[in-house]
């Protein structure tokens, strides 16, 4: 009996795990945005708890990828897939972490009304959520064109971060400004901006998985 | 002729590359601290330029690791080394990025006197630099005990970040506070805190390389 069916099965299992982890990460960022809008602090606590699940998934996928490399010694496109899995989970785990960091900040805040004062935070959140959704969809569906769009959207998010920063600075320059909340919102914007970066990384790993190149540099 | 000498040579080359990249990253963070102290903005520009070199090293090491996996199909301890190389370069590259981000902020700042006003920034910089140095030394010398110390030092850096945050908030609450510089210093502190996290990651990857476990979880 050939070892191939088992190998194929293991590759499929790895893909299923990645999809599962991707779903958890997407949920985390969606829930974070809901907390923004509803100030539902029980949900915020759930995000922090679910982050442990995401961390566990990272370890499981790393373990599976390494074990697969060790036993099956994949080559070419399969090796690219397995080594990509090993890298992409780090970005997904980071997105989960940062969603949890945002949730944690939100539970300690009283000035959630600033959400509307700082106009570009909702925009940032919406764009970042879309980037994460598209990056994971692109990775799972092997959609290079969608991945390209995510990379372009990152410029929008970076630009929005600078607008939020300017807005926070303007608010902090007024007398009796809510300094603590202002700082927390700036941190939240920074986390959103980083989440966008990780979505881009996921797209670059898809590029590598499909072409062996990242940003036109041949890796394998 | 056995393929082993070539394989050993390639593993050695990979190790040399990692040491070279580690040296560049350490230099980046050392130079960043010098800019803090001397306001030497030419040096700040050099850090940003050198970051490109660090990014190139990341691509070279990734490429070498993947190519080595593909051609030599390493097993056991060798596979752990090669797959660790693939992960650890991401953390090193991020440290370089964040040093460059700090340097960039410093070149645009006028309020460098705050360096002394915000008392805990120099402490943070000193501790973070030590963590990066020790993490890379531990990884290169396979020193698990040193790696353990780095992980403990991270609590100190996290604590210092919270102190800096409190100091910045206190300053921003005074009339006519230098809001822009305050915000920039908070960002710098955040970058230093993240650098500490990446140093910890490097130590965890050493743990995996030597034991197949991270935080007592068996990965391989």
List key phrases describing it.
mainly alpha; elongated; two-stranded antiparallel sheet; Methane Monooxygenase Hydroxylase, Chain G, domain 1; 85% helix; homodimer; 2 strands; 7 helices
Distance between the termini of chain A: 31 Å
Low-confidence stretches of chain A: none
CATH topology assignment of chain A:
Methane Monooxygenase Hydroxylase, Chain G, domain 1
Strand adjacency order, main sheet of chain A = 1-2
> Which H/E pattern describes the elements of chain A?
HHHHHHHEE
Q: What share of the residues of chain A lie within helices?
A: over 70%
Q: Biggest β-sheet of chain A: count, sense, barrel?
A: 2 strands, antiparallel
The quaternary organization reads as: homodimer
Greatest interface and its residue counts? A-B, 35 and 35 residues
Number of domains of chain A: 1
GO cellular component, one term (chains A, B): cytoplasm
Domain PhoU (chains A, B): 19-105, 121-205
Keywords (chains A, B): Cytoplasm, Phosphate transport, Transport
Family (chains A, B): Belongs to the PhoU family.
């Amino acid at each position: 009996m050939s070892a191939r069916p088992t190998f194929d099965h293991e590759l499929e299992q790895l893909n299923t795990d990645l999809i599962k982890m991707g779903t958890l990460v997407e949920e985390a960022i969606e829930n974070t945005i809901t907390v923004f809008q509803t100030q539902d602090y029980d949900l915020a606590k759930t995000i922090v708890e679910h982050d442990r699940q995401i961390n566990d998934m990272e370890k499981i996928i790393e373990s599976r990828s390494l074990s697969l490399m060790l036993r099956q010694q994949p080559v070419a496109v399969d090796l690219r897939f397995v080594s990509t899995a090993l890298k992409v989970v780090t970005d997904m785990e980071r997105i989960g972490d940062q969603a949890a960091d945002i949730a944690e900040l939100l539970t300690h805040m009283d000035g959630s009304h600033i959400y509307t004062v700082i106009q570009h935070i909702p925009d940032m959140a919406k764009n970042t959520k879309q980037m994460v959704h598209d990056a994971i969809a692109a990775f799972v569906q092997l959609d290079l064109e969608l991945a390209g769009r995510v990379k372009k959207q990152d410029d929008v998010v970076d630009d929005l971060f600078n607008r939020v920063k300017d807005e926070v600075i303007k608010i902090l320059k007024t007398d009796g400004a809510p300094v603590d909340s202002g700082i927390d919102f700036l941190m939240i914007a920074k986390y959103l901006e980083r989440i966008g970066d990780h979505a881009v990384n996921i797209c670059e790993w898809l590029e590598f998985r499909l072409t062996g190149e990242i940003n036109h540099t041949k890796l394998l």
